[in-house]
Amino acid sequence: MENKITIMFWLGTILATVLSCVVIAVVILYQKRLKEYQITLLKQRLSIILEAEHKERARIARELHDGVCSELLCVINYLQIIKLYQDKKTKKDALKQIKKISLNCYKQLQVLSYHLAPPHIKDNALECIFSDFINLIKKSTTIEFSYHYTDASFQIKEKEKLILYRVVQELVQNIIKHSSASKVSLKLVWEQDKLIILISDNGVGYDSDFKSDNAKKGIGLSNIHARLKEINARFKHIREDNSNTIGIYFENQDNKSSNSR
Q1: Where are the alpha helices (DSSP H) in the chain?
Q2: pLDDT digits (tens, 9 = 90+) for 74-115
Q3: Distance separating alpha carbons of residues 237 and 240, to the nearest angstrom
């Protein structure tokens, strides 16, 4: 009887040890797989960010080449005219054109610099940041812009403001370049713990699913989705033949965290 108990004890001990080893092995394997998945996800996000930065640099290079550089070349040509021609009228007309082109270059560089580093993100409310942006955009396009907002119901962190600004900036640039719209409206609707940003235009419809074959290439939709994912914001696009409405839905995470405690 005693031998049976001893055998049962050792069998139980061995079985428990084996099970413990199996559990430990499963946990180690799970952690390894989880780490590999996190590394893969991080690489994907990094790839999207790098691609977005590459596209942004390429866009800025095009803006400088096609806009500012071309304008400065015209200034050089007018300076040559002033040097070669002696009559006052020709010189006066050339100086007038140089002044006009220089002012246009200044406006283009002002818009580019604002896009690269929007001022006072930290110290200003989101509605003020968007107001400055829309006022600046109005100077560089013939599209009619309208802007409305309700009173803010909660505070947004600096990172969240910057991401929402970048997304709206990208969407507005897409509308200007691709939609053939004549009217655009931007609305900020604040609710108790939610901010809804609505961007509407009367241009041609397009596909906002960046994975779709029908989506327009090179308009930064993958970047938009990646940015919004960082702050757990949702993206919704209502498309019609002659209009588009994009909704960005951002929830106050601090309020959700305090309610869940």
Answers
A1: 2-63, 70-84, 88-116, 126-138, 158-174, 221-230, 253-260
A2: 888 888 888 888 788 888 888 888 888 888 888 778 777 766
A3: 10
